[in-house]
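User: Quick sanity check before I run a bigger batch. Here is a single chain. Can you write out its predicted 3D structure?
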Amino acid sequence: MKLAIVSFVAALVAAPLAAQAAAPPTFAASLNATVVDRFTYAWTRVSQDCSIRRTGFGGRELLLRSPRATTVQVTRSGTVLRYRPSSVLARVTGRATSGSFGDVKRCRAEPILKASGECKAKTIVPRRTRAVFRSGRSAFAFREPATPGDVEICGLDPTYPGGWLQLAPGRVNGNALVNGTAARAVARGSARREATIVDTPALRVTQQTTVRWTMTFRRLP
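Assistant: Done. Predicted structure follows.
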């Protein structure tokens, strides 16, 4: 009878310990990132007797910071890491950068006319967003948001989508996350992309985007 009681007590003690051991590791995850867009363009308008050619530039700078850490559980399914949730809260601040443009007007039998204009930098209204990332083995990458936000370009009426974190894939130490080998793990990504996003006889727009980000995972007790 005493042996049975001892075994029963041992089972009660072991049960919560086993549950604790089986619980997936939990981390406080935070994001620190910058996204910088610079646009340059050349625009031409032609009428019967005149042509106007405008060249200019403008852009946007974004800062993303976690106002508070997001609690994330990390598990491994086969060789793939799974994050719950697979996103972190971020506060987005920034500004539309200063820009300028210049016009050259040529008309038949008239002197060439030149004009120019400038746009001052202005602060973007702060907002909060969820930066969503993908599961993977050791690769770590963000997803493109549904609305990355349009950028106003000095002297040009159309707006164009700005860059986002998905342009810079990174990597993370998966073993440090799931095996308890480290109290802290960091994923980093950086990239620079330049592309001609509009190329017509009347308008040519080039976008240069630089993205840098750091995701820090700190193990919770």
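Residues 1-21 have pLDDT under 50 and may be disordered.

User: Great, the batch can go ahead then.
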